[in-house]
Amino acid sequence: MSARYAVHGPAAVITLDNPPVNGLGHATRRDVADGLVRAQDDPAVQAIVITGAGRAFSGGADIREFDTPQAMREPNLLSLILAIEASGKPVIAALHTVCMGGGLELALGCHYRVAAPGCQVALPEVKIGLIPGAGGTQRLPRVLGVEDALNMILSGEPVASERLAALPGQRLFDRLVEGDLMTGALAFAAEVAARRPLPLVRRLTAHHPNADAYFQFARNTATAMAPQFPAPRKCIDMVAASVALPFDEGLRLEWSTFTALMLTPESRALRHVFMAERAAGKIADVPADTPVRSVKRLAVIGAGTMGGGIAMNFLNAGLPVVMLETKQEALDRGVATIRRNYEAQVKKGKLTAERAEQRLGLLSTTLDYADLADADMVIEAVFEDLGVKEQVFRRLDEVMKPGAILASNTSTLDLNRIAAFTRRPQDVIGTHFFSPANVMKLLEVVRGEQTGKDVLATVMQLGKKIRKTCVVSGVCDGFIGNRMVEQYLRQAFLLVDEGSTPQQVDKAIERFGFAMGPFRMSDLAGNDIGWAIRKRRYAERPHMQYSKTPDLLCETGRFGQKTGAGWYDYQAGKRDAIPSPVVLELIEGHRRTLGITPRKIGDDEIVERLVYALVNEGAHLLEEGIAAKAGDIDMVYLTGYGFPLHRGGPMRHADEVGLFNVVRAMRRFQHNPLDDAAFWEPAPLLARLAADGKTFGHGL
Ligand code: NAI
Known about the structure:
There is one protein chain. By secondary structure, the chain is α/β, with parallel strands linked by helices. The protein has 29 helices and 19 strands. Strand 1 (3-8) and strand 2 (11-16) form a beta hairpin. It binds 1,4-dihydronicotinamide adenine dinucleotide (NAI). 1,4-dihydronicotinamide adenine dinucleotide binds next to helix 12, helix 15 and strand 15. It catalyses: a (3S)-3-hydroxyacyl-CoA + NAD(+) = a 3-oxoacyl-CoA + NADH + H(+).
């Protein structure tokens, strides 16, 4: 049963019962519809109460049904709501905990609504690129007023029932029930059982004194804030329709708009991200009920750029951190940076001074390993040097208590070798934070050959606690994100050799939607970092073709923003990237040395080469088992590298373009004499999926 039916005195009670959040999947809808018929047919029943079992009234449509015929199978949500409206006996929705999306739309179709305080009420469809499709945009303005309804529909954010109940003139709730909700709902049902005519939200009207100007202002704001997404503007159009059109016409317009949005690449991308984010937390061979270790106290080794930011994550979550360094000055510098970060947040009004002090109060420092003995987990963020890491891990092995988790923030070193420095490789794991570690959402959780499943499960849970998007990566040089970005940057540099300018490449990929192009990104991260990596690669991969231009740039000391000059020029204290004549000259000089006649390169080629370089490397990572799912790669790129959200990540984007087309373009790039034909050989997985007419999404 997905909804239960019971009779309590003169009232029938239909209880949605589809864990975890009573999603309105087909079976649930059918059971509610059956319950309505039973209640109509039972002469002893005078009123019907609909409520939800467990932790929600209803979280809305069952997203697992999206894109399947089940979603529209009768009774669909629209026809179920019509059946509720048509009931000859009053139907009362009894709302608690969570009432969102389709759940709220169903409640709005009921004759009355009673709610417990603290119920989170929302129409969150805009977050997956949609509008509410079962009357939400037509009914909510009629009960809340246009402005409050539009705010909820456009933001998708939940509002607590008691706040909504306090809005003047609201008709959303007929009663707020303190105490037992069911007792209150049944008492209310008894009061209204004989009342006729039955009230319907569709009979109310929505007004705005200044409708045209108000909606135009809203459209301008939405366009400026989310230019890539059509759904916010459609939300506004629909609320405008609730004012301008008769109810049934508004409902029809809402439905046709909803179905059109379902097919947009933007909504498909957002739905993919919604699912991928949840799926990233699931690891095939680590069951959800794997026991986790208790992590209440942390230690961080190294108080540099990363160590400080990493520590802040845990302080923010209320967990005490002890930070260890080799010298007092380094500790003092690290603590001063953390303090400055908190002070900046206080200045911006993001944090109270009292809270900032509380968090700082959880931080202690030491030069002595003995002080780490009671930490449940330690994260090492010392210099990227295997010898230094060896010293640290051997020491940690001596002092840490049994069962403590030993994590390394290494970005390139072999975690299995680091684990082998200890006698407890099962307790060793990689936690690859991104800079600035207190801000960036992404955390690559690196699973060593011997990392214990409970250690993995613990770190994934802890990552969630500090609000990171955690993605598991196997051990390889660069893990998922940096291994892919290396190929992306390689293409960017080759494009410049062939005829583009850094600003042309940056502009093209920024128009595609990236937050920042590869040259601005390199200047921000420091060009010397890539230089060091390339030097290693020249030795490891002597056959691969690399552009020498970035090395020439580094030889002139142009390391990026930190030296005031990189691919661009920078004015002191500013971050604006100014095209540099010196760099252009350097590029042109190098082309002459190589005998390259520059050609005009279109934006399409720039975008395809940069993005498909990511896709092909991503396919290799999947094939090698470094990444478990295409969605994991997408989450890495969306949360760590500024990949445009409306495209859903590189692998999702490739699916949207069609893998057949991706492979065709790669075959074209193989003919470029200045690039590597072998690199553009489609990864076997990509070639297979393309040949079978499949996608990364359903290929895995
Ligand atoms: P950093 O140079 O800013 O900080 C390293 C700190 O470790 C210094 O304060 C140093 O005094 C301390 N240290 C060195 N040897 C030590 C020892 N034996 N015991 C205790 N402390 C010691 O370096 P950063 O950038 O913070 O990098 C740290 C680690 O994080 C490296 O493994 C790096 O590859 C990794 N990483 C760096 C990222 C970045 O963007 N900077 C991003 C992701 C990972």
